[in-house]
């Protein structure tokens, strides 16, 4: 059965498995109607494989060096987390950089999604967490500006996520990457129906509201982000890891997905309902 719209997920920092979004998909599907699920193609972007083998090698070199290191579990945690953030932004203008390899990983999943949508420019929903919010923002920015992997060529509308109806960010740390800039500019809205819903927990020191980042001009975050939504995923900084399993996130995101399905033309939906 052909699919009518798609969901793309992208994970955040730290050690991640290729099946990282299984629990999210399961939790969302428990809330969505059967006809919505039948029309939905769910794809996950897994970019961490580009990092892990190198991070593991560095860690092994450190612990085998003979130099005493206290707090090894915490050190390894920060090595993985901070290395992900630094490596993902490193040498964006070089063809063999991790930055561009990640962009190509995203593009492969976008192309695979389009095949399941019968090569049609159908609506897409993006669900991002943590560092994945910055990475997918970079991808959209580059596609809109013909930079990065798109330098010297023109992506088709679907490849540049021009059909994105929703960008859902959670535990978003974009402010950590842009706060030193003189003018902080967001991506352009891909289309007039696009909405950006940002979920954050005040206890999550890596998750931030986005609308206060910039105001007063067309591509200010205050204009591009539809809503900053505070939720409670826990009572400590560890809440950063809990968004995708928390009902305060799952329930409203399922409603947003359902609304996109309900807005599809009747002749594209599997089953009409009253």
Automatic annotation (TrEMBL):
Entries under InterPro entries matching the protein: AB_hydrolase_fold (IPR029058)
Gene3D superfamilies per record: alpha/beta hydrolase
Protein name, per record: Chemotaxis protein
Lineage: Bacteria, Pseudomonadati, Bacteroidota, Cytophagia, Cytophagales
């Amino acid at each position: 059965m052909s699919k009518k719209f798609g969901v793309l997920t992208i994970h955040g920092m730290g050690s991640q498995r290729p099946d990282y979004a299984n629990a999210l998909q399961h939790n969302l599907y428990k809330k969505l109607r059967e006809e919505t699920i039948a029309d939905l193609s769910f794809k996950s972007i897994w970019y961490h494989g580009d990092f892990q083998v190198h991070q593991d090698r560095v860690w092994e070199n450190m612990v085998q060096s003979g130099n005493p290191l206290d707090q090894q579990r915490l050190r390894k945690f920060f090595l993985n987390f901070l290395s992900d953030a630094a490596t993902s932004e490193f040498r964006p203008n070089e063809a063999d950089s991790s930055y561009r390899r990640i962009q190509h990983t995203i593009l492969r999943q976008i192309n695979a999604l389009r095949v399941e949508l019968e090569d049609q420019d159908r609506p897409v929903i993006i669900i991002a967490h943590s560092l994945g919010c910055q990475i997918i923002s970079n991808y959209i920015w580059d596609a809109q500006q013909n930079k990065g992997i798109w330098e010297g060529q023109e992506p088709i509308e679907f490849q540049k996520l021009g059909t994105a109806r929703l960008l859902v960010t959670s535990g978003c740390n974009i402010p950590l990457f842009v706060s030193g800039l003189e003018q902080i500019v967001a991506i352009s809205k891909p289309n007039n129906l696009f909405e950006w819903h940002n979920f954050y927990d005040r206890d999550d020191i890596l998750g931030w509201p986005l609308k206060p980042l910039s105001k007063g001009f067309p591509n200010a975050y205050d204009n591009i982000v539809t809503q900053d939504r505070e939720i409670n995923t826990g009572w400590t900084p560890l809440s950063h890891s809990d968004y995708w399993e928390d009902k305060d996130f799952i329930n409203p995101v399922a409603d947003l997905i359902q609304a996109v399905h309900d807005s599809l033309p009747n002749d594209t939906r599997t089953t009409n309902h009253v």
